[in-house]
Amino acid sequence: MTSSDSARELPRPTALERMTWWDRAAEDRIIAKLLPTVLADPATRVLAVAGDRVPLADGGLSWDTVSRWVDPAAPGLVEEWAFLGRDENGAAVVMAVLAADAAAPGDDDTSVTYASLRTATPSLHPAEAALAVTAVSLGRWHIEAPFCAACGARTEVLHAGWSRHCPSCGREHFPRTDPAVIVAVTHPGDPDLLLLGSNAAWTEPRYSCFAGFVEAGESLEGAVHREIREEAGVEVGEVRYQASQAWPYPRSLMVGFTAEAVDAGMARPDGDEIVSVRWFHRREIGEALGGRGDLLLPGPASIAHRLISDWHAAGSP
Question: 60 and 47 in contact (C-beta within 8 Å)?
Answer without folding.
Answer: no
